[in-house]
TrEMBL record:
The keyword ATP-binding does not apply. The chain crosses the membrane at residues 236-261, 304-322, 328-347. This is Dolichol-phosphate mannosyltransferase. GO terms for biological process: dolichol-linked oligosaccharide biosynthetic process; GPI anchor biosynthetic process; polysaccharide biosynthetic process; protein O-linked glycosylation via mannose. It is a multi-pass membrane protein. It comes from Alicyclobacillus sacchari. Residues 4-169 form the Glycosyltransferase 2-like domain. Residues 239-354 form the GtrA/DPMS transmembrane domain. It is found in: Membrane. Belongs to the glycosyltransferase 2 family. One of its GO terms (molecular function) is dolichyl-phosphate beta-D-mannosyltransferase activity. The lineage of its organism: Bacteria, Bacillati, Bacillota, Bacilli, Bacillales.
Amino acid sequence: MELSIIIPSYNEKDNIRPIVRRIHEAMGSADISYEIWFVDDSSDETVQVLSELVTEDERVNVHHREGERGLASAVVRGFKLARGRYFIVMDADLQHPPELLPAMYERLKQGTDIVIPSRFVEGGSDGGLGPFRKLVSWTARVIGQLALHRLRRISDCTSGFFGLQREVVEGAELDPIGWKILIEVLVKGHYRTVHEIAYAFLARDAGESKMSMHEQWNYFRHLVRLVSQSPSDRRFFLFCIIGASGVIVNELMLTILLYAFHMKDTPASILASLVAMLNNYIWNDQITWRSPREGRKWNVKLPLFVAISLVGILITTLVMHACERIGFIVPVGQAVGILVSTVWSYVMNNKVTWRETEHRERGDIVVTRESAPTAFTRVKSGV
Ligand SMILES: Nc1nc2c(ncn2[C@@H]2O[C@H](COP(=O)(O)OP(=O)(O)O)[C@@H](O)[C@H]2O)c(=O)[nH]1
Ligand SMILES: [Mg+2]
């Protein structure tokens, strides 16, 4: 078996037959052995439609889960059931055009680990969503990309449409919450290459969306869990929290020095900053980079940390001025500067101050992009 197409479905009675037909049409010309797996949690006539289809069409397989819900866990079940060398996951409602399947398959066959049709690569669009859903979806993506470094370069990291080599998820401990199976795969999967293909996300053919506020909340919980399970993302998060705690220490110290010790403004300000720096150093040493790091002494680490922080202050000011020059007000420029210098300090401290002892297998992930041929982007589903 070459390819397994995995489709999570929940109350999609009017979409099941059309999507199977469209998949066969799309795959018809290609000489590929493939199977379709519906992982279904439906409580309506979808169940009957699927059981009829299984007897009519040998390529169709159904796994019905009784009393269970959840798009992402349905896909994980699909990964376990599927027999193909390659997997492609897509929705049942034809918002993901099956016409893209042969191109995705070709890429997988050439050895790309993960293929993601993207709404946000040149030539793609997400016309299938209303303005409110677009805003929610954009916010969710940005928060995800800030929290998890492996999502940063993937333009459509919350997509429900993607293909992968079986090995990407085999042996990975997938344990998603809610809907966004792709973020789970991107964070925990074993892969080196990602290819994005532009496509147009279309409006639903029939039935209605099952997206809800509850699912947005699940997405947030899922992110928190992934951050806690991914050492480097967890470190960056802790570093930011400790940095923020330093601001409170700084202000508190300043108040004490000014009003209890009647110090002058400038020395009070400098001393408060130094105390905050010491505060940050101690917490980072004890929490952020606790182990397994090189056993350097504090008299090496502390000066390095201070030097990096001082350069960070310089960076903040330079960025603030640069922003001011292009028309932003000073506080906004300062905020951008703080952001840049936080990333600077984190990267430098991670690489220099608390240098890792063991050689970790690194290797960057390579992301390539392709704008889709018009034929793929203009397909209208069933209309
Ligand atoms: N198995 C399973 N599939 C689900 C569940 N919730 C949604 N789906 C399917 O996931 C896909 C995406 O859902 P949809 O409502 O279209 O979300 P939207 O495209 O983001 O509006 C569709 O194929 C749904 O039938 C679920 O709890 N279990
Ligand atoms: Mg949909």
